[in-house]
Amino acid sequence: MSLLPRSLFGRLALLMAGGLVLTQLIGATLHLTERQRTLGAVVSQEFAQRVAAVHRAIDSQPAGERAALAERLSTPRQHFSVAAAAPAGRDVAAANSDFMARLTEALGPRTAIRPVVLPDLGTFVFDIHVELGSGGWLRVEGRAPAEIFAWPAHLLRNLALMLTVVIVLIWMVARMTVRPLTRLAQAARGLGENLRQPPLPEDGPSEVREAAQAFNAMQDRIRHGIEERERFLAAVSHDLKTPVTRMRLRSELLTDANLRERTLRDLDEMQQMLGGALDFLRGKAADEAQRPIDMLALLESLVDDQAELGRDIRLVACADAVRFVGRPQALRRAIGNLVENALKYGRRATLALDDNGKALRIVVEDEGPGIPEAELERVFEPFHRVDSSRNRETGGVGLGLAIVRQIALDHGGEVTLANRAGGGLRAELRLPRREA
User: β-strands 348-355, 312-317: how paired?
Assistant: First the structure.
C-alpha cells in the first residue's frame, strides 16, 4: 500500500513541504553545529588567557601565599587551587583539543599541563593541572555558562514561523496549480450528462488556458454533432413513417384477406422496428434535465399501469419514500422495459426497491425460462435476440435491454442479469446517488 497521497494536490504539497522541512532542518543543524564550534573557540581562547594570567600571578608569589591568592582569584565559573602533585591525566598530544592548543600557546611549550577533564562540543567543562615553575601544581576547574551553548530559542521560533508561512504558501500554490485540473476533470465527468454545461473559464497559465480551450472546442463539436444527429433523426422519423403509413392505407384495400393480414403484420413489425431503432439512436440526445424524483411513486405508477391491464405484478419497497436525482422519463422507460420483459416472458413479476444511502437497487424478477448463461451479457447488444425464449411473435426487436443499459450508464449506474436458482430471471438496476 502506497504511503503517498492519492491526489495530485496531496503529492505536490507533501513533496514541496517535505523537501522544504528537510532542507531547513539540515540547514539549521549545520548552522547550530558551526555556532557551537565558533562559541567553543571563543570561550576556549578567553579561558586559556585567564588561566595563563592567573598562572603567572600565582607562580610569581612565595610558596606560602599561593594558596590564598588562588582562592582570592577564584570565581563561581572558575576555581583555582594549589596542589603538591598532579594526578595522572590524559596525554596532551592525544587530547587533540582546541582548548588544550590555545592553553599551550598561552602558557608556552615548556609549561607542563595534565588535563583530567576537557571540554566537549556544547558543554564547556574542564579540570586541568598546570605545573608551577617553583614546584607544585595549579589546579583549574572551570565551566562556561550553559546558556551560551543552549539552542537559541529565537532561532527555533523564527524557523517555525518561516516553515509555517512557507507551508501555507506551498499549500496555496499547489491548490492553485491543481484547481484547473480538478475543474477540467469535473467538466469531463459532467460532459456525458449535460452537453450544454457552461464552458470552462479560459484563464490561468498558458498550459491551463490551452487545455480549457481544447476542452471547450471539443464540447462544442460534440454538441453540434449530436444536435445534427437530432435533426437527422427527426427527418428520418418523419420521412420513413410517412411511406409506412401510405403502405398501411393501401394494404387495407387488398381484397385477399390472408395477404392483407400478412402485409399489415409486416408493416406493424416494420413500424415497431423503426420506432425502436430511432429511440435507441436518439439515446442521450434526449435533452431531459435531472431533477429530484420520488422513486417509490414512480414504481407504484408503473405497477398500477400494469395491474390495470390485468397483469400479475407486485412491488416490494424498503421505505415509504425514496428521493433520487435523475431523469424521470428515462428512468421510467428503463424500468418499464425491465418490467415488460419480465411480464412478457415470465408471466408474473416482482419489483423491489432498496436504498442503502449510497445507491438505489431496483430488482425485477420473473418466473420465466431464464436466459442461457452465455447470453446474459450479449442480450444487451442492440438487435440481439435469444431465439429459444424470445421470438418476434412476442414482440420487440432486441433493443429494450440496450436502451436500459444506455440509460443506466447515463446515470452513472449499471444493469445486470442473472438466472434465479429457483427458475426465472433476475434483472438488477443499480443507480449511485449523485448531486443534482
Answer: parallel
Identify which of 141, 50, 56 has the alpha carbon closest to the alpha carbon of residue 103. Answer: 50
Q: How far is residue 116's CA from residue 113's CA, in Å, rounded to a whole number?
A: 10
Phi, psi angles (nearest 5°) of residue 370: 80, -170
In a shared domain, residues 229 and 306: no
Q: Each residue of 11-62: pLDDT tens digit?
A: 777 777 788 888 888 887 887 778 778 877 888 888 889 999 998 898 888 8
16 & 65 share domain = yes
Q: What angle do CA 306, 309, 312 make, to 5 degrees?
A: 60
Instruction: Tell me the pLDDT tens digit for each residue of 255-305.
Output: 888 888 888 888 877 777 676 666 666 654 445 678 899 999 999 999 998
249 lies in the same domain as 329? no
Please state whether the predicted TM-score (pTM) of the whole model is above 0.70: no
Q: Are 167 and 16 in contact (CB under 8 A)?
A: no
Alpha helix positions (H), 88-197: 92-95, 98-107, 146-149, 153-191
Q: Are 326 and 290 in contact, with CB atoms under 8 Å apart? A: yes
Domain that holds residue 199: 194-287
